[in-house]
Amino acid sequence: MRHVIALDVGGTGMKAALAGPGGELLHQARRATGRERGPEAVVAGILDFAAELRAYGADRFGEPAGAAGVAVPGIVDAEQGVAVYAANLGWRDVPLRRLLGERLGSIPVALGHDVRTGGLAEGRIGAGRGADRFLFVPLGTGIAGAIGIDGRVEAGAHGFAGEIGHVVVRPGGLPCPCGQRGCLERFASASAVSQAWAEACGDPEADAADCAKAVDSGDARALAVWRDAVDALADGLVTALTLLDPRVLIIGGGLAEAGETLFTPLRDAVRRRVTFQKLPEIVPAALGDTAGCLGAGLMAWDLLDTASPTHTASTAATAATPPEVTT
After folding, report:
1. What is the pTM assigned to this prediction?
2. Residue pLDDT, tens place only, 225-245
3. In sequence order, which ranges of 16-113 are alpha helices (DSSP H)?
4. What are phi and psi of 201, to 5 degrees?
Protein backbone atom coordinates (compact mmCIF):
# COMPACT_ATOMS: atom_id res chain seq x y z
CA MET A 1 0.00 0.00 0.00
CA ARG A 2 1.32 3.45 -0.92
CA HIS A 3 2.11 5.61 2.08
CA VAL A 4 4.32 8.46 3.26
CA ILE A 5 6.16 9.32 6.47
CA ALA A 6 4.97 12.31 8.49
CA LEU A 7 6.97 13.82 11.36
CA ASP A 8 6.03 16.68 13.65
CA VAL A 9 8.98 17.75 15.81
CA GLY A 10 8.18 19.83 18.90
CA GLY A 11 10.29 21.33 21.64
CA THR A 12 10.02 18.28 23.90
CA GLY A 13 8.46 15.52 21.82
CA MET A 14 8.02 14.15 18.33
CA LYS A 15 4.80 12.86 16.80
CA ALA A 16 5.02 10.67 13.73
CA ALA A 17 2.73 8.78 11.42
CA LEU A 18 2.47 6.80 8.24
CA ALA A 19 -0.18 8.41 6.06
CA GLY A 20 -2.13 6.66 3.33
CA PRO A 21 -3.20 7.97 -0.09
CA GLY A 22 -6.35 9.52 1.34
CA GLY A 23 -4.45 11.27 4.14
CA GLU A 24 -5.57 8.70 6.70
CA LEU A 25 -3.11 7.96 9.48
CA LEU A 26 -2.25 4.28 9.19
CA HIS A 27 0.14 4.15 12.13
CA GLN A 28 1.12 6.69 14.80
CA ALA A 29 3.95 6.88 17.31
CA ARG A 30 5.50 9.37 19.71
CA ARG A 31 8.81 9.82 21.45
CA ALA A 32 10.90 12.44 23.23
CA THR A 33 13.28 14.66 21.27
CA GLY A 34 16.09 14.12 23.75
CA ARG A 35 16.97 17.81 23.60
CA GLU A 36 18.70 17.61 26.98
CA ARG A 37 21.47 15.72 25.15
CA GLY A 38 22.10 18.59 22.71
CA PRO A 39 21.14 19.49 19.14
CA GLU A 40 23.18 16.72 17.51
CA ALA A 41 21.28 14.15 19.55
CA VAL A 42 17.97 15.72 18.50
CA VAL A 43 18.88 15.46 14.82
CA ALA A 44 20.09 11.87 15.28
CA GLY A 45 16.83 11.03 17.04
CA ILE A 46 14.78 12.44 14.17
CA LEU A 47 16.75 10.43 11.60
CA ASP A 48 16.49 7.23 13.66
CA PHE A 49 12.75 7.70 14.21
CA ALA A 50 12.17 8.25 10.50
CA ALA A 51 14.23 5.18 9.60
CA GLU A 52 12.23 3.05 12.05
CA LEU A 53 8.98 4.28 10.48
CA ARG A 54 10.29 3.45 7.01
CA ALA A 55 11.19 -0.08 8.10
CA TYR A 56 7.83 -0.53 9.82
CA GLY A 57 5.96 0.65 6.73
CA ALA A 58 7.93 -1.58 4.39
CA ASP A 59 7.23 -4.59 6.60
CA ARG A 60 3.54 -3.86 7.19
CA PHE A 61 2.52 -2.58 3.76
CA GLY A 62 4.91 -4.42 1.49
CA GLU A 63 6.72 -1.35 0.19
CA PRO A 64 8.69 1.54 1.67
CA ALA A 65 7.30 5.03 2.01
CA GLY A 66 7.34 7.07 -1.19
CA ALA A 67 8.07 10.42 0.45
CA ALA A 68 8.38 12.13 3.82
CA GLY A 69 7.19 15.38 5.33
CA VAL A 70 8.61 16.93 8.49
CA ALA A 71 7.46 19.94 10.48
CA VAL A 72 9.91 21.69 12.82
CA PRO A 73 9.77 24.78 15.06
CA GLY A 74 11.79 27.96 14.76
CA ILE A 75 13.08 29.56 11.57
CA VAL A 76 12.78 27.30 8.54
CA ASP A 77 14.03 27.72 4.97
CA ALA A 78 11.55 25.36 3.35
CA GLU A 79 12.83 26.03 -0.16
CA GLN A 80 16.37 24.98 0.73
CA GLY A 81 15.25 22.31 3.19
CA VAL A 82 17.19 23.82 6.09
CA ALA A 83 16.13 24.13 9.73
CA VAL A 84 17.79 27.52 10.25
CA TYR A 85 17.31 28.09 13.97
CA ALA A 86 15.25 26.76 16.88
CA ALA A 87 15.97 28.13 20.35
CA ASN A 88 14.20 25.30 22.15
CA LEU A 89 16.13 22.63 20.24
CA GLY A 90 19.45 24.45 20.11
CA TRP A 91 20.16 23.88 16.43
CA ARG A 92 21.35 26.16 13.66
CA ASP A 93 21.46 25.59 9.88
CA VAL A 94 20.62 21.89 9.90
CA PRO A 95 20.19 20.55 6.31
CA LEU A 96 17.38 18.34 7.52
CA ARG A 97 15.81 17.62 4.13
CA ARG A 98 19.11 16.32 2.73
CA LEU A 99 19.91 14.30 5.84
CA LEU A 100 16.47 12.67 5.89
CA GLY A 101 16.56 11.97 2.16
CA GLU A 102 19.91 10.21 2.52
CA ARG A 103 18.76 8.21 5.54
CA LEU A 104 15.48 7.17 3.90
CA GLY A 105 16.85 5.89 0.62
CA SER A 106 16.82 9.12 -1.41
CA ILE A 107 13.05 9.60 -1.27
CA PRO A 108 11.73 13.15 -1.68
CA VAL A 109 11.39 15.06 1.61
CA ALA A 110 9.36 18.20 2.38
CA LEU A 111 10.40 20.43 5.28
CA GLY A 112 8.00 22.93 6.80
CA HIS A 113 7.49 25.29 9.73
CA ASP A 114 5.42 23.64 12.46
CA VAL A 115 2.67 26.29 12.63
CA ARG A 116 2.35 26.62 8.86
CA THR A 117 2.26 22.85 8.54
CA GLY A 118 -0.50 22.59 11.14
CA GLY A 119 -2.28 25.43 9.37
CA LEU A 120 -2.05 23.55 6.09
CA ALA A 121 -3.91 20.63 7.65
CA GLU A 122 -6.52 22.83 9.34
CA GLY A 123 -7.11 24.67 6.09
CA ARG A 124 -7.40 21.67 3.81
CA ILE A 125 -9.07 19.06 5.98
CA GLY A 126 -9.90 20.74 9.28
CA ALA A 127 -11.82 23.80 10.38
CA GLY A 128 -11.03 25.74 7.20
CA ARG A 129 -11.87 23.00 4.74
CA GLY A 130 -13.38 24.47 1.61
CA ALA A 131 -12.29 28.05 2.35
CA ASP A 132 -10.21 29.75 -0.33
CA ARG A 133 -8.62 32.13 2.19
CA PHE A 134 -8.04 31.40 5.87
CA LEU A 135 -5.87 32.53 8.77
CA PHE A 136 -4.84 29.98 11.40
CA VAL A 137 -3.74 31.42 14.74
CA PRO A 138 -2.64 29.04 17.53
CA LEU A 139 -2.52 30.59 21.00
CA GLY A 140 0.14 28.68 22.91
CA THR A 141 3.41 29.61 24.57
CA GLY A 142 3.56 32.31 21.92
CA ILE A 143 1.29 33.30 19.05
CA ALA A 144 2.06 32.50 15.44
CA GLY A 145 -0.04 32.32 12.32
CA ALA A 146 -0.50 30.56 9.00
CA ILE A 147 -1.91 32.38 5.97
CA GLY A 148 -3.86 30.00 3.75
CA ILE A 149 -4.43 30.74 0.06
CA ASP A 150 -6.17 28.25 -2.25
CA GLY A 151 -5.01 25.13 -0.43
CA ARG A 152 -1.46 26.21 0.32
CA VAL A 153 0.16 28.22 3.11
CA GLU A 154 2.11 31.38 2.30
CA ALA A 155 5.61 31.41 3.78
CA GLY A 156 6.57 34.90 2.64
CA ALA A 157 9.70 36.06 0.82
CA HIS A 158 11.95 35.19 3.77
CA GLY A 159 9.90 32.57 5.63
CA PHE A 160 8.39 34.92 8.22
CA ALA A 161 4.84 35.36 6.93
CA GLY A 162 2.10 35.02 9.54
CA GLU A 163 4.06 36.11 12.63
CA ILE A 164 1.02 37.87 14.08
CA GLY A 165 2.31 37.39 17.62
CA HIS A 166 4.81 40.17 16.98
CA VAL A 167 2.30 42.73 15.81
CA VAL A 168 2.55 45.56 18.37
CA VAL A 169 -0.85 46.03 19.99
CA ARG A 170 0.25 47.94 23.11
CA PRO A 171 2.95 50.45 22.06
CA GLY A 172 5.51 50.88 24.80
CA GLY A 173 4.13 47.89 26.66
CA LEU A 174 5.83 44.79 27.98
CA PRO A 175 9.20 43.95 26.40
CA CYS A 176 9.25 40.98 24.05
CA PRO A 177 12.20 38.66 23.39
CA CYS A 178 11.98 39.73 19.74
CA GLY A 179 13.26 43.17 20.76
CA GLN A 180 9.99 45.10 20.49
CA ARG A 181 7.64 46.23 23.24
CA GLY A 182 3.92 45.54 23.38
CA CYS A 183 3.77 42.51 21.07
CA LEU A 184 0.48 40.63 20.88
CA GLU A 185 1.88 37.42 22.32
CA ARG A 186 2.97 39.24 25.49
CA PHE A 187 -0.72 39.86 26.28
CA ALA A 188 -2.86 37.18 24.62
CA SER A 189 -0.87 33.94 24.48
CA ALA A 190 -1.67 31.09 26.85
CA SER A 191 1.59 31.76 28.68
CA ALA A 192 0.79 35.48 29.01
CA VAL A 193 -2.65 34.73 30.47
CA SER A 194 -1.09 32.18 32.83
CA GLN A 195 1.41 34.74 34.08
CA ALA A 196 -1.21 37.47 34.49
CA TRP A 197 -3.60 35.18 36.34
CA ALA A 198 -0.87 33.79 38.63
CA GLU A 199 -0.02 37.34 39.64
CA ALA A 200 -3.67 38.35 40.06
CA CYS A 201 -4.67 35.38 42.21
CA GLY A 202 -1.40 35.02 44.11
CA ASP A 203 -0.84 31.39 43.10
CA PRO A 204 2.40 30.94 41.13
CA GLU A 205 1.18 27.54 39.90
CA ALA A 206 -2.05 28.90 38.37
CA ASP A 207 -2.33 28.82 34.58
CA ALA A 208 -4.60 29.94 31.74
CA ALA A 209 -6.90 26.94 32.15
CA ASP A 210 -7.39 27.89 35.81
CA CYS A 211 -8.15 31.45 34.75
CA ALA A 212 -10.81 30.22 32.30
CA LYS A 213 -12.46 28.20 35.06
CA ALA A 214 -12.43 31.25 37.34
CA VAL A 215 -14.00 33.30 34.53
CA ASP A 216 -16.80 30.75 34.26
CA SER A 217 -17.37 31.04 38.01
CA GLY A 218 -17.62 34.85 37.80
CA ASP A 219 -14.37 35.73 39.58
CA ALA A 220 -13.86 39.48 39.06
CA ARG A 221 -10.06 39.22 38.98
CA ALA A 222 -10.19 36.50 36.35
CA LEU A 223 -12.71 38.45 34.29
CA ALA A 224 -10.33 41.43 34.24
CA VAL A 225 -7.36 39.30 33.15
CA TRP A 226 -9.45 37.53 30.50
CA ARG A 227 -10.91 40.80 29.17
CA ASP A 228 -7.45 42.33 28.77
CA ALA A 229 -6.25 39.28 26.85
CA VAL A 230 -9.32 39.15 24.60
CA ASP A 231 -9.08 42.88 23.86
CA ALA A 232 -5.43 42.59 22.89
CA LEU A 233 -6.16 39.54 20.76
CA ALA A 234 -9.02 41.29 18.99
CA ASP A 235 -6.79 44.29 18.25
CA GLY A 236 -4.18 42.05 16.68
CA LEU A 237 -6.69 39.99 14.73
CA VAL A 238 -8.42 43.04 13.27
CA THR A 239 -5.04 44.25 12.01
CA ALA A 240 -4.60 40.86 10.34
CA LEU A 241 -8.12 40.94 8.91
CA THR A 242 -7.49 44.37 7.44
CA LEU A 243 -4.35 43.16 5.70
CA LEU A 244 -5.40 39.65 4.66
CA ASP A 245 -9.21 39.59 4.36
CA PRO A 246 -9.57 35.86 5.22
CA ARG A 247 -12.88 34.07 4.80
CA VAL A 248 -12.29 31.92 7.91
CA LEU A 249 -10.27 32.71 11.03
CA ILE A 250 -9.22 29.53 12.85
CA ILE A 251 -8.12 29.84 16.47
CA GLY A 252 -6.20 26.95 18.02
CA GLY A 253 -3.68 26.22 20.73
CA GLY A 254 -4.06 25.84 24.48
CA LEU A 255 -6.11 28.99 25.04
CA ALA A 256 -8.72 27.85 22.51
CA GLU A 257 -9.44 24.85 24.72
CA ALA A 258 -11.51 27.25 26.84
CA GLY A 259 -14.20 26.96 24.15
CA GLU A 260 -16.96 29.54 24.22
CA THR A 261 -15.40 31.15 27.29
CA LEU A 262 -12.93 32.48 24.73
CA PHE A 263 -14.89 32.48 21.49
CA THR A 264 -18.02 34.31 22.60
CA PRO A 265 -16.23 37.44 23.92
CA LEU A 266 -13.63 37.24 21.13
CA ARG A 267 -16.25 37.26 18.37
CA ASP A 268 -17.96 40.19 20.08
CA ALA A 269 -14.69 42.10 20.46
CA VAL A 270 -13.71 41.61 16.82
CA ARG A 271 -17.21 42.56 15.66
CA ARG A 272 -17.03 45.82 17.62
CA ARG A 273 -13.73 46.74 15.99
CA VAL A 274 -14.46 46.11 12.31
CA THR A 275 -15.71 49.00 10.19
CA PHE A 276 -15.33 48.46 6.45
CA GLN A 277 -13.72 45.02 6.84
CA LYS A 278 -15.71 41.88 6.16
CA LEU A 279 -16.15 39.87 9.34
CA PRO A 280 -14.82 36.34 8.81
CA GLU A 281 -16.20 33.21 10.39
CA ILE A 282 -14.26 32.74 13.66
CA VAL A 283 -13.99 29.04 14.54
CA PRO A 284 -11.96 26.75 16.79
CA ALA A 285 -9.32 24.50 15.28
CA ALA A 286 -10.56 20.98 14.61
CA LEU A 287 -7.51 18.72 14.49
CA GLY A 288 -5.88 19.24 17.89
CA ASP A 289 -2.33 18.05 18.31
CA THR A 290 -2.53 15.82 15.23
CA ALA A 291 -2.55 18.86 12.91
CA GLY A 292 1.23 18.92 12.53
CA CYS A 293 1.44 15.26 11.55
CA LEU A 294 -1.50 15.55 9.19
CA GLY A 295 0.06 18.59 7.57
CA ALA A 296 3.43 16.88 7.22
CA GLY A 297 1.67 13.99 5.51
CA LEU A 298 -0.07 16.37 3.13
CA MET A 299 3.26 18.00 2.27
CA ALA A 300 4.74 14.60 1.51
CA TRP A 301 1.84 13.61 -0.73
CA ASP A 302 2.13 16.95 -2.53
CA LEU A 303 5.61 15.85 -3.60
CA LEU A 304 4.15 12.71 -5.16
CA ASP A 305 0.72 13.83 -6.28
CA THR A 306 0.46 15.82 -9.48
CA ALA A 307 -3.14 16.74 -8.67
CA SER A 308 -4.10 20.18 -7.39
CA PRO A 309 -4.29 21.01 -3.63
CA THR A 310 -8.07 21.05 -3.99
CA HIS A 311 -8.01 17.45 -5.13
CA THR A 312 -5.72 16.52 -2.27
CA ALA A 313 -8.08 18.16 0.19
CA SER A 314 -11.07 16.22 -1.04
CA THR A 315 -9.26 12.90 -0.85
CA ALA A 316 -7.83 13.61 2.60
CA ALA A 317 -11.08 14.27 4.41
CA THR A 318 -10.91 11.07 6.45
CA ALA A 319 -7.78 12.32 8.17
CA ALA A 320 -9.83 14.73 10.22
CA THR A 321 -10.70 11.94 12.66
CA PRO A 322 -7.43 10.03 13.12
CA PRO A 323 -7.26 6.70 14.94
CA GLU A 324 -5.87 6.18 18.41
CA VAL A 325 -2.12 6.57 18.84
CA THR A 326 -0.07 3.40 18.52
CA THR A 327 3.20 3.26 20.36
Report:
1. 0.87
2. 999 999 999 999 999 999 999
3. 39-61, 96-103
4. -95, -10
